[in-house]
Amino acid sequence: MAEAAVAPVIDTRPQWFGHPAQLARLFTTEAMERFGYYGMRALLTLYLADHFLFNDSTTTSLYGGFTALVYLTPLVGGLLADRYLGSKRSVKFGAIVMAIGYFILCFGGEAAKPYAMIEGSRYEVVIDKTNGSKQQYVEDSAQRLAIKGNDDGSVSLLAPDGSVARSVPKGGFVAGGDRDPFFTMVMLIGLSAVTIGNGFFKPNISTMVGSLYSQGDQRRDAGFTIFYMGINLGSLGSQLACPFLADRYGWWAGFLLAAIGMTISWALIQFAGPKLAGYGEPPAQDGKDKSLLIYAGAILAVPLVWFLFSNLMNAPPPVAGQGIMGYIQGLPILGRALFSTFLIAVIAIPIWSWRVGTKAEFEMMLAAIVLIVFNVVFWTLFEQAGSSLTLFADRNTNLSVFGLFNISAGQTQFFNAFFIVALAPVFSKLWTTLGKRGMEPGIPVKFGIALIGVGAGFLFLVWGTQFADENYRVGLWWLAGLYLIHSMAELCISPVGLSMITKLSIARIVGMMMGVWFLSISCAQYVAGVVAQVASVETVGGQVTNPRVSLETYAGVFQTIGLVAVVIGVVLLGVSPLIKRWMHGVQ
User: Fold this and answer.
1) Could you report the per-residue pLDDT of 379-392, keeping only the tens digit for each?
2) Is residue 217 assigned to a domain?
3) Which residue of 100, 206, 291, 368 has the lowest C-beta tally within 10 Å?
């Protein structure tokens, strides 16, 4: 007797483009949250460097630590939602805490006042912004002397007639800034609130999307594709609007727009009413509701994150020549915690899988760990966008668009989101077409292509530095070209990562492996800050004193990391047949 065919499940709920109507609200909620986050991120590096006058090393270190924690805290937020709060309450709580963090960032106080220590004596520094140019001067006995950095690291102080009034040897000129400790603390509290709130929001909004579809619903992947488009659409608008407002009206205006976007995101969930009833609800619990205790604990965690940021800013640089363990021991607390945990994970997990699993399971887990390590390399270099590449845009890029108008340095991050939105359908069609012909590259090959691509993007920009103008600024389109190449590389690696982990992991530790995946991205964000520190240049009042040295420094660092990425990508392509064999048919 023939087996009866199983009738497809008919979804009787209101629909939105063939999907549950609730997807529209979650899509908009995510888009507005990303609007706030990426708008704030477009400002952050320049805010630290130009408003607070932190040196490049402190700026990029703090930026890297912040983005590292943004990827680390969702591990805790997801666990608390699964066991106690439910996704919906976690998203609402995370949204309001993030909005508060953005509002706090609006209160930056007066800009730090620049000064210079010249061979042990202190001098006030004045920044002249006449005619759009920025020239730094020291006040010396009622006379203004222009500051000019020299190629050998020394500094010349120029009289009004252009003659050298005083030469300061290398190391004798140290720039600084008088910043209000209270407003520095306020800024760190704002970043800490954003970090904690993100931990509750980021993992659980995706969980709510998944809950819209029953097991086996073939619309699930398409639904997530639509949902993730909201990420790029939200960031697309804010990376233009927030820097525009910050330039026109002040930093507070840019952060305020980010806060408004985040508040709208919260309101969409808070006032959803029956539209999201039954989705993301708390799990059944025995005993007293622990939500208020969790909320209080999250608020009390803000000072802990503030402490980590403070330690990051004040920690001395690691001592060279002590090996990898000595390097880790010399890192700030956050760096030690991230590296130690990741190092233990990538060693212990394969050993465990070898002892308890079959040969095939061990090889699949080994393949996953190897690809996770390569994933760290990719995101370390890709995430230069918010730090060293933004500073390069500010200092050594001609930001004119066809001579019609200028964009700001923060707005250059818009290119990545634009190219992702434009190219995602193209790459989706490409992989589908190649797959039908049996020609789609496997996961290790895609990872290798991505690494070569991220390196090629930096090398493309280095090539462009040869055509810099008389002010040592490259054309904007060289930077846009880098983002085009990087976006194509991102589309080779980003969509397959999480899926790869779920397919290769031993079932009983798939949750742990997902945690290791996010830990790898968190480590990459932190290392990205370390790499950006290598590209640090001397500044006075947030401005470089020698644009030629600045250009050569950035070009040298970008060339090095570009070549390293290409070599690592080629190595991965070379060993990809072995990794593919370890994957035992996983595609």
Assistant:
1) 999 999 989 999 99
2) yes
3) 291
